[in-house]
Design goal:
Chain A: Pfam families: HATPase_c_2 (PF13581). Chain A: Keywords: ATP-binding, Kinase, Nucleotide-binding, Serine/threonine-protein kinase, Transferase. Chain A: Residues 11-140 form the Histidine kinase/HSP90-like ATPase domain. Chain A: This is Serine-protein kinase RsbW. Chain A: Belongs to the anti-sigma-factor family. The complex is a heterodimer of chains A (158) and B (116). Chain A is 31% helix and 23% strand. Chain A has helices at residues 18-31, 36-56, 90-95, 115-122; strands at residues 5-12, 65-72, 76-83, 125-129, 135-141. In chain A, strands 1-2-3-5-4 form a five-stranded antiparallel beta sheet, with helices on one face. In chain A, β4 (125-129) and β5 form a beta hairpin. In chain A, α2 runs antiparallel to α4. The longest helix of chain A is centred in the N-terminal third of the chain and has 21 residues, at 36-56. Chain A is globular. The two termini of chain A are 19 Å apart. Chain B has 116 residues and is of the alpha/beta class. Chain B has one domain: Transcription Regulator spoIIAA. Chain B is built from three helices and seven strands; from the N terminus they run ββαβαββαββ. In chain B, the strands form two sheets. Chain B has a five-stranded mixed beta sheet. In chain B, strands 5-7 form a two-stranded parallel sheet. In chain B, β3, α2 (63-79) and β4 (82-86) form a beta-alpha-beta unit. In chain B, α1 packs parallel to α2 (63-79). Chain B starts with 8 loop residues before the first strand and ends in a 5-residue tail after the last strand. Classes of the chains: A alpha+beta (158), B alpha/beta (116). The interface between A and B is medium-sized, with 35 and 31 residues.
Chain lengths: 158, 116
């Protein structure tokens, strides 16, 4: 089996811990020598995943936890964000996500729904498991060469 | 939490008749976005206001920030105020670009290469 280091954290499902997870990941990715731009992408992706868990997993008067796991491989980082809250209809969520299209009138633009879309745009691989709560598993490869900011959309490396 | 390590958000409002400039500094995420929304929306709701949000000191923003600005844009169309963003850091601008929102939100200036 491929060797990797694993780090796991549990935080309360509260918005004030989103920044903590972001800083933690920034430290880990820096340790792995990810580029500045890649670290910024990772920070947005983990924030989106944790925000999703904070906002959807538990009801207002419910308290819960979010588990975040980091798999540190030679060539990539794998991040898992899991909640144990009620599951939601993934297909429905996915159908409501995506970029703004110029034929849409301003009044129709969603105020949410960009989160999952951003995760998919910024990470190389994204898997979502919706069986017991929601688990997002996302991977970013550590490329040797700096990738230009403007053409770093969805990667082709699989 | 130590301030400066976990960046929170601060919003300063400079008013000169109908021109309202919001200087935002810190990080915009789900924790801090409500504070931004609370400062921004009352100004947007007043018809005739010219509201500028200066993002020069915002180094991080995610989709919750986009949500606030989309909401501001919609409300400005209804109330007849005008809403612009200025001095957006390249990293933050990228989030507007990826989501296509840079096409509809009036963004005056983008700071490129702020990461050197």
């Amino acid at each position: 089996m491929e060797a990797f280091d694993y780090i796991e954290m549990k935080v309360p499902a509260k918005a004030e811990y989103i920044g903590v997870m972001r800083l933690t990941l920034s430290g880990i990715a820096n340790r792995m020598s990810f580029s500045y731009d890649a670290i910024e992408d990772l920070k947005v992706a983990i924030s989106e995943a944790v925000t999703n868990a904070v906002e959807h997993a538990y009801g207002e008067n419910e308290s819960g936890e979010i588990t975040v796991g980091f798999g540190l491989y030679e060539d990539r980082i794998e991040i898992m964000v899991a909640d144990r809250g009620g599951s939601f209809n993934l297909e429905e969520v996915k159908s409501e996500t995506g970029p703004y299209r110029s034929d849409e009138p301003v009044e129709k633009i969603r105020e949410g729904g960009f989160g999952l879309f951003l995760i998919e745009a910024l990470m190389d691989e994204v898997k979502i498991n919706n069986k017991y709560g929601v688990m997002v598993i996302m991977t970013k490869y550590n490329r040797e060469e700096e990738v230009d900011m403007d053409d770093d959309q969805v990667s082709t490396i699989q | 939490m130590t301030e400066g390590v976990i960046m929170n958000l601060s919003v300063k409002i400079n008013e000169d008749s109908n021109l309202k400039v919001l200087e935002v500094s810190g990080e915009i995420d789900a924790y801090t976005a409500p504070e931004l929304k609370e400062s921004l929306m009352p100004l947007i709701r007043e018809s005739g206001n010219q509201v500028e949000v200066d993002l020069e000191d915002v180094q991080y923003m995610d989709s919750t920030g986009l949500g606030v600005f989309v909401s501001a844009l919609k409300t400005s169309k209804e109330s007849g105020s005008h809403f612009t963003l200025k001095n957006v850091q390249g990293r933050v601008y990228r989030i507007f670009e990826i989501t296509g929102l840079s096409e509809i939100i009036d963004i005056k200036a983008v700071i490129r290469g702020g990461n050197e």
